[in-house]
Design goal:
With 235 residues, the chain is an alpha/beta fold. It has helices spanning 20-29, 87-99, 119-136, 150-154, 197-205, 220-232, and strands spanning 4-6, 14-19, 37-41, 48-55, 59-64, 78-82, 104-109, 143-144, 148-149, 162-171, 185-188, 209-211. The protein folds into two domains: 4-64, Beta Barrel (Ribosomal Protein L25, Chain P), CATH 2.40.240; 78-232, 3-Layer(aba) Sandwich (Alpha/beta knot). It is 29% helix and 26% strand. Strands 6, 7, 8, 9, 10, 11 and 12 form a seven-stranded parallel β-sheet that branches. The chain is elongated and about 60 Å long. The protein has six helices and twelve strands. The two termini are 28 Å apart. Bound molecules: S-adenosyl-L-homocysteine.
């Protein structure tokens, strides 16, 4: 795969200019030279092969030569809701969910969650989505939702039929009832302190299936990855 670059503008065959961090990365870090082949994407689902025409420190000019739509999405909507872990662990979670093809991430506020993403943090998380997409080949960016309270989130009417809540002691067997071929999936993971009994009961009454992930207590990010992998294994 040619080096991939994200640009925040419309793309089509023809000339395009890259500025800011992407231009810096291309010209200074990767030392791109006229004639080098790269691949541009803007999150519209396609990628655009391009050739470097001129590479300055703050401005790189390229010529887009085509438009391709390789199938790299899951084919259904997969939403993950979880309280965002602190610092680097939050970035790690976002990176891995992007790589795994998750379509939406919703930061949750639960009774026991501590960290709540501020606007500056969201910029950083958006950057993590872009970096992961560059690396893994995704041409659709994982959407980052706004902070949502669990009680409201779990009762939302527009959730898919298949909705799982990870909770230690939940059912271990691969839940298939009504989920096979169900299409879209919604998954929820609790904070380090866990969901409260009330929160789990509320989710059950709203139709969420309570899923166990083994006999050990996993970190939020590990639990999210394990749950996504399990959800993706349903056909
Ligand atoms: N002390 C908490 C554990 C929190 S771990 C408790 O006992 O509930 C953080 C979150 O990861 C949990 O809320 C749950 O959603 C998920 N998780 C961690 N380990 C899990 C397991 N073995 N099975 C299912 N979910 C798990």
């Amino acid at each position: 795969m040619a080096d991939r670059f994200y640009v925040n503008c419309r793309l089509a065959p023809g000339p395009v200019e890259l500025r800011g961090p992407e231009a810096h990365h291309l010209a200074t870090v990767l030392r791109a030279r006229p004639g080098d082949a790269v691949c541009l994407f803007n999150g519209d689902g396609a990628e655009y092969p391009a050739v470097v025409v001129e590479a300055g420190r703050n401005l790189v000019t390229l010529n887009v030569t085509g438009r391709e739509e390789p199938p790299r999405e899951l084919g259904y909507r997969l939403e993950v809701a979880a309280p965002l872990p602190k610092g680097d662990r939050g970035d790690f979670l976002i990176e891995k969910l992007t790589e795994l093809g998750v379509s939406d991430f919703v930061p949750l506020r639960t009774q026991r969650s501590i960290v709540h993403p501020r606007d500056t943090r969201l910029d950083r998380l958006e950057r993590a989505v872009i970096e992961a997409s560059k690396q893994c080949g995704r041409n659709v960016l994982m959407r980052l939702g706004t902070l949502t309270v669990w009680d409201e989130y779990c009762r939302k009417k527009d959730h898919p039929h298949c909705r799982w809540l990870a909770h230690p002691g939940g059912e271990m067997a691969l839940p298939v009832e009504g989920a096979s071929g169900a299409g879209d999936r919604a998954l929820a993971v609790g904070p380090e302190g866990g969901f409260t009994d009330d929160e789990v009961a509320l989710a059950r009454s709203a139709g969420w299936q309570v899923v166990g992930l083994g006999a050990r207590i996993l970190r939020v990010e590990t639990a999210a990855i394990a749950l996504v992998v399990r959800a993706c294994s349903l056909r």
